[in-house]
Amino acid sequence: MKRFDLRPIVSGTRAPAVGKTESADRRTEPGVLRVSLERASEAGGYIAHIGDRSIEFEGEADGDGAGFVRVGGRVVPFLADRCDNVLTLWLNGALHSFEIVERSARRAGASALAAASDKLVAPMPGTVLKINAVAGEAFEAHAPLVIMESMKMEMTISAPQAGRVKRVVVAPGALVEMDALLVELEAVD
Amino acid sequence: MFKSVLIANRGEIAVRVTQTVQEMGMRAVAVFSDPDRQAVHVRTADEAYPLHGVTAAETYLDIQKIIGIAKSHAVDAIHPGYGFLSENADFAQACADAGIVFIGPTPEAIRAMGDKIVAKRGMIAAGVPVVPGWSGPSAEKHDSGESDSGEADSKVWAAEAERIGYPVLVKAAAGGGGKGMRVVASAEEFAGAFAAAQREAGSAFGDARVFLEKYVTRPRHVEFQVFGDTHGNVVHLFERECSIQRRHQKIVEESPSPALTPALREKMGAAAVEAVRSIGYVNAGTVEFMVDASGAFYFLEVNTRLQVEHPVTEMVTGLDLVRVQIMVAAGEALPFTQDSIRQVGHAVECRIYAEDAAKGFLPSTGVLKHYREPSGVGVRVDSGVTAGSEITVHYDPMISKLIVWAGDREAALARMSRALRRYPILGVTTNVEFLANLMGHEAFRRGSLHTHFLEEHSISATSDAPPDEAVLAAVMTLGAVRRSSAGQGVRVDAERAGPWQTAGAWRMTS
Fold first, then answer.
1. Catalytic: B305?
2. ipTM of the complex
3. Searching chain B, which residue's CA lies closest to the CA of residue A74?
4. Helix, strand and coil in chain B, % to nearest 5
5. How do residues B309-347 score in pLDDT, each as one tens digit?
């Protein structure tokens, strides 16, 4: 029996895709779904265990990750794609993403998030047009620190809160990837 | 007629033009940049030659390279598609100088209509209604190419903006596609927005000139497809409503417009024909209008190319516009008259973009790991990608165009909704779910459209309806197991082939 812990990745305005994210299993943290799959028959029958529920279904997936499931008479086509620890499902025209949680990595996520606010990163791949940030200088909240261009559109990257520029990492004209570090910030004492 | 046509473009439009060229029994010659070496437009062509380079500037925008390839491979005519060199008068002239037919209007017509200021003056002379505005201190100054960016000059512009009355629109003279355009709500914002529009216009078009226009509140964008030939015939092929826009760029287009009465359609069609007849226009063009709530319409601009949204016109008229373009370029007369063209049924086009509707429609890039197009009665997909194709920062993030036709608008929207829900794309963030939600939106269904529709109505970027829990459980367990059976911890190399392609058919082992 294969067993996984999945955490729904909430993107945009969508709430977690699964209603019961509180697992009955006390050993998993809230928001994480413990799921497992067992084979029920040679003919493609399965039982999925999710939290404290069990669902019988039939299904098949081809070599491309495309398949269908038949649950209680309803036929639903799907596509599954797994890249590293992110599982993305296309289901009835909607996408649902899940992080496959490694138990040792459970705690790492929170601290990475907290540190993110002292960095300005590229929200999209593109070219750095102009940098208003100067190392050592203070700025107000919403100050336009970097101006980028992507696909011929200008976009301003503003300060999330007041602070001081610690380091300017990129130069005007630089071609950067998405999430590339642009400017390091620090709080004013 | 021509024996060969070079298509100076990439992506879906290059594939689209290739199809017609081949149907007409001609050789379709493709050109390609380094990243496009294995692109669909290369695979579908009869011949393909490299442009050697990566950026648009060193490939699809390089006039000398393209003309050079055309000359050394005995090409008779060049189709520019849209974007890139399609509205570049110097390119049209370079074709003519090299003895190659440019499939489009004359360099003079492109130049006249490409300059929005000159175009607007021409329309006023032809009696076509235009939006109140101001295009600079004097015509002479523009013609001599003097810069209008001085600070004193900015004050003169601000005064004119005050006279027209806020809100005012600052637009690029050489512009298009919403680039170099700024809405200015008040006098305090004017100087900053004016400078930003000039800067953006300068970097996008190499021409920093801008002009002012009265900002019409909640207008519809309705455009007319027009066609002229070298025998003096000019007709229109009815309208397309393109009011659904984000960042001033269209994402949904349809024909007929839900707003046009037969009387208004006739009046606007006649104005569109007059607009291009007055300049002796030849080949395909589009006359864009703004229509306000009272049904008053104002000329916006003439696009001297085949439009992205041309398929909706093809669907309701049954015509192949690329075929007509090629015939006209070869000197033939239009194969129809105004009275013989009919607008039948209803067509809708959705532009499928690699972008995140939840984050202000920011473009996204990446490899299309899964890509499967919907099909069925009345469903057409114009695309230039396949599974494994990469959406890069170098070119437009449009993945494809999904077009449907049905007997009436309601049936067409239902058909579009279904098709969007059967269009899986994994690997990049797309606007597919957003478009599906839009198709179901009450105000959209009612046809109550205007160009700020997406700002006024909040449309979810992701599916609103939660999936059935049991179905999701089945799929997520099957999906999660799917990968691990091929070896957990193996990094997926998102290159040309889909990640599952090498894994073979999946069989569960317990």
1. yes
2. 0.73
3. B471
4. 35, 20, 40
5. 999 999 999 999 999 999 999 999 999 999 999 999 999
